[in-house]
Amino acid sequence: MPRATRVSRLTGLLASVLLLTATAVACGSTDSGSDNVSGSSAAAKEGSSAAAGAFPVTIAHKFGSTTITSEPKRIVTVGLTDQDAVLALGKVPVGTTEWLGGYKGAIGPWAQDKLGSAAAPTVLKDTGTGPQVEKIAALRPDLILAVYGGLTKAQYESLSKFAPVVAQPKEYNDYGVPWQQQTEEIGQALGKADEAKTLVSGVEAKFAAAEQANPAFAKATAVMATPYQGVFVYGSQDPRSRLLSDLGFTLPKDLDKVIGDQFGAQISKERYDLLDQDVAVWIAPDTTTSVTKLHSDPVYGDLNVVKQGREVYIKETSDYGNAVSLSTVLSIPYVLDRLVPQLAAAVDGKAATKVEQPAS
Q1: Averaged over 237-248, what is the pLDDT?
Q2: What backbone torsions phi and psi does residue 22 show, to the nearest 5 degrees?
Q3: Confidence category of residue 47, pLDDT binned at 50, 70, 90
Q4: What's the predicted TM-score (pTM) here?
Q5: pLDDT higher than 70, residue 328
């Protein structure tokens, strides 16, 4: 099946509604959003054990809270990027949910060393109608993670019939959880809260080093966009935009006012001023014809960001583009090695400086 664009994929997911059906494999029960881990099923490949005294742990989310009473052994990730945090913490999920496509087990090259010799997870689909409940149940999970997700309450309740579910946090838009909080919440769920904080600190140090080496970033504005059915811009709560703000860039002032409470939105040509920043980062189908098409638009082509050569282009379906879209504790170091040099070239104040594509 051909890959859909990131935007169309998420748009379908945000609009999905699960049709509830009775399932013979469902087991256990929940009350007012609180769950207990089932003690069944064999373990997947285990990493280091959870910290002593880590359980029980209760994690708040959009639909209440979930209590996990013992170390989970069979983890299914419904959140589209949650598998990276699980792998970073030494566990291998028994099931993942496909978003990007093209990777065995839905595990990208930046995370392959964490998989090691373990069997790749079973890959589940979500084509816009919600999680595949029966297939998830068949994996006999004792924990379902949907932190980077957009579950509806009905979907949450359906999944909670047979395993505890950690849904997306309520304080952010769906698909808007920061990678730091995602990693730390998953660390709590796995009984590895301290290890998760250490991982977060390590990646934050990489951001700080990049920002220190490039003081121009803190004085510049930036926007992240994609040429999807016109122009689609990502809001401040989207992980892609957070890559820029975490590097010190300032996002457009009216960005969230224009897109509302979504992770991003299409904008009209009347609001192309949002694109005229010190740097515009494009996640595009390719880095040739997409550029030509954008520049042929008389409104966009006349902006200073174009005239002064301050654009960055990232091929959407490349490993680099996929890593940008994921923006996880494992993919971000991979991204920074490639994105930081491009951004530095874009904001160096010299229109003649070419923003080069990464070698790989």
Answers
A1: 96
A2: -70, 145
A3: low
A4: 0.85
A5: yes
Tokens standing for 156? 């949450």
CA 274, CA 294: separation in Å to the nearest integer? Answer: 15
Query: Is 6's pLDDT higher than 80?
Result: no
Q: How far is CA 184 from CA 45, 111, 112, 201, in A?
A: 21, 18, 21, 11
Q: Could you tell me the strand order of the sheet in which 232-234 lies?
A: 264-266, 232-234, 222-226, 279-284, 311-315
Distance CA 127, CA 130 (A): 7
DSSP string across 95-119: EEE-SS-SSGGG--GGGHHHHTTSP
For the chain, what percent of residues have pLDDT higher than 90? 81
Environment class of 349 (CB within 10 Å of its CB; exposed 0-12, middle 13-18, buried 19+): exposed
SS3 311: strand
Q: Could you tell me if 191 and 57 are in contact, meaning their C-beta atoms sit under 8 angstroms apart?
A: yes
Q: Residue 170, class by beta-carbon neighbours within 10 Å (0-12 exposed, 13-18 middle, 19+ buried)? A: exposed
Whether residue 8 has pLDDT greater than 70:
no
Cα distances (Å, whole numbers) of residue 138 to 21, 22, 159, 166 = 15, 14, 12, 19
